[in-house]
């Protein structure tokens, strides 16, 4: 998948990115069918599971305090050329005392066989085999004619370097090649409400839920500075000094270089500075800081390389350091397939899921107005405020990464989560 570029720009000059960016796209109205569909991507609200035997609400709890945890994001991401519906769910405990504790952020994956996808894949496979047979017959008739068959698997799995998981994250898999029948539109798929289950009150949820829309990540090419045009009479030492001064202006000393790049990467995405989620199955997450134990584990050697960086030209590439070990990210316990990076939540999501919007009624939480308080209510309010000063409610993470099963095995399985906790990065 290549990023879509604005009109008039050249895609050949774009920085390489295969990530899809998700942005909030307005609230989902009450009683709308999309609130109870696992094939809709959203933030907040209640999750819907495509399973005849859904997880119990009592299972969706914080591993630290055992309290029910609200949904942050539900992401519908069926594989292109695959046979399953696939939905990811990320939950996080809002209790202040659970921040920075293991198990306060959790993620699950639900994968269910979709017979229409299976039929489409089988049709594509049969047509590919028929085309290969036709070309083989032609070569036997005329052995001096070079065949033009595509490499095996290129038609079946999307071709063009798209990989196993396609570019259209929140819809049905992309259309088949021209000779095949197109994949059914999402609205026409057989999704039976009888085989799904939506969580409900009194489980806590951020209300109202909001749609997510996606866009390819387009990063404007970096500005080119001609060091030789300023003064041809400058010595190499003077030019090197000027280059170092410019680097210091871009990344002042004392500021964490990885955090600086994290913020810059998000803010410079064309038309997607308000992104709350990044999806890139099999890709590389954005490292958050050099001091993070998670970064040091996922990107061994990168923090040291960043700290040793002396000039802008020496910028180390995170992808060259990205080496998550199986001891850190264990394989899927259901099918033993490796887990690969799949999605990343970024801190702007917190602005859309504030504690004031948490509700246990399924409806939007009422605004807190000023009213007369009894002595008991006043004491409770003071105790609540004191608790907020000591932790209270609210999320303190800076980045959440989820690694999912590469094999997309059927069932409901908890996936691996890594959390970058917010710190003073200076």
From TrEMBL:
The keyword Mitochondrion does not apply. InterPro entries: PDCD2_C. This is Programmed cell death protein 2. Residues 373-387 have a biased composition (Basic and acidic residues). The lineage of its organism: Eukaryota, Fungi, Dikarya, Basidiomycota, Agaricomycotina. Residues 256-421 form the Programmed cell death protein 2 C-terminal domain. Keywords: Coiled coil. Residues 114-141 form a coiled coil. Residues 223-235 have a biased composition (Acidic residues). GO terms for biological process: maturation of SSU-rRNA. GO terms for cellular component: cytoplasm. It comes from Dioszegia hungarica. Residues 193-243, 356-392 are annotated as: Disordered.
């Amino acid at each position: 998948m290549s990023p879509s570029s604005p009109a008039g720009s050249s895609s050949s000059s774009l920085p390489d990115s295969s990530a899809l960016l998700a942005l909030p796209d307005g609230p989902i109205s009450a009683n709308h069918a999309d609130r109870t569909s696992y094939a809709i991507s959203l933030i907040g609200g209640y999750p819907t599971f495509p399973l005849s035997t859904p997880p119990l609400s009592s299972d969706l709890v914080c591993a630290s305090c055992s309290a029910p945890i609200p949904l942050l994001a539900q992401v519908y991401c069926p594989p292109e050329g695959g046979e399953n519906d696939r939905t990811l769910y990320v939950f996080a405990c809002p209790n202040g005392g659970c921040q920075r504790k293991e198990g306060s952020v959790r993620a699950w994956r639900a994968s269910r066989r979709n017979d229409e996808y299976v039929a489409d894949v089988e049709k594509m496979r049969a047509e590919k085999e028929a085309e290969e047979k036709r070309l083989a017959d032609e070569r036997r008739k005329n052995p001096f004619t070079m065949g033009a068959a595509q490499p095996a698997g290129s038609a079946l799995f999307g071709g063009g370097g798209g990989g196993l998981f396609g570019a259209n994250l929140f819809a049905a898999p992309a259309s088949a090649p021209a000779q095949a029948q197109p994949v059914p539109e999402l609205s026409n798929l057989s999704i039976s409400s009888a085989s799904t289950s939506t969580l409900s009150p009194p489980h806590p949820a951020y209300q109202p839920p909001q749609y997510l829309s996606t866009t390819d990540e387009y990063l404007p090419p970096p500005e080119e500075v001609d060091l030789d045009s300023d003064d041809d009479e400058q010595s190499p030492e003077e030019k090197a000094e000027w280059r170092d001064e410019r680097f210091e202006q871009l990344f002042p000393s004392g500021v964490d270089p990885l955090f600086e790049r994290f913020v810059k990467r998000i803010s410079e995405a064309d038309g997607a500075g308000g992104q709350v989620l990044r999806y890139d199955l099999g890709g590389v997450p954005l490292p958050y800081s050099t001091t993070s134990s998670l970064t040091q584990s996922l990107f061994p050697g990168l923090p040291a390389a960043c700290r040793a960086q002396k000039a802008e030209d020496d910028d180390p590439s995170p992808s060259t350091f990205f080496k998550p070990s199986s001891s850190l990210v264990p394989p899927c316990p259901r099918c033993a397939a490796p887990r690969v990076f799949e999605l990343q939540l970024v801190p702007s999501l917190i602005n859309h899921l504030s504690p004031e919007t948490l509700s246990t009624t399924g409806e939007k939480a009422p605004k807190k107005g000023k009213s007369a308080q009894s002595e008991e209510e006043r004491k409770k309010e003071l105790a609540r405020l004191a608790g907020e000063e000591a932790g209270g409610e609210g999320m303190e993470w800076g980045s959440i990464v989820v690694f999912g099963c590469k094999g997309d095995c059927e069932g409901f399985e908890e996936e691996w989560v890594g959390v970058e906790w917010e710190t003073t990065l200076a």
